[in-house]
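Narrative summary of target 7.
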Amino acid sequence: MINVVKIGGNVIDNPESLERFLKDFASLKGKKILVHGGGKEATRMSEGMGIKARMIDGRRVTDRQTLDIVTMVYAGLINKRIVAMLQEYGCDAVGLTGADGNVIPAVRRNPVPVDYGHVGDIDESKVSDKFIGDLLNGGHVPVFCAICHDGKGGLLNCNADSVAGAVALGASRVESARLIYCFEKPGVMTDVNDENSVIPLVTSESFQILKESGIVDKGMIPKIQNALLAASKGVAEVRICNAEALCGEGGTIVRER
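Modeled conformation, tokenized:
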């Protein structure tokens, strides 16, 4: 079983939380892949340079300046920080973007009805399972950021949850794969202020109800959308949970029905 784990949210921003998570991740047995976000750090850097971040439905609008910033933050600062920490914990990590090895090609999102700028959408069928398999079979642990490429020399900012889902589907063509979305909350919740309100199971049908009622909104929408896509196309198990529950149980299981 290949474990594909996505980490983001407040965990990356908190050095102690990140250290605990990476120690747990390094302790996972067998083949594994890490996908990380880092939007909050990118937002801080943008605003420090006088560039206000713009978000629509939980997705970042990426003009040319913002693309340069997120590339530096995601593919450079955060990615290499995580790789260095994993090496300390005996995990032979390799930091990657989607451009490396042509592993995750993407296309620039249609500007109609909303122009997100240099933002990419991924066709998961084009993810290079051969490249992923070669790395895993060579004993390496891929660490992907959310920067992909268009095959025409251009970089694209992609949603990290989408990258995780696409990578999990690519990995599932190598062998059975599990996708785990880890963040600071204990799962999908009916009340974000009540940690006892975790929804144990989300399906396509219940997701529509949760979205229409406003219980699920903003950044949780693409997370669940990508979880459902992965579950519907062959990923063996999809879970959304607190980063500290990576090696345990709990959280929200996502499946098609």
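The longest strand covers residues 177-183.
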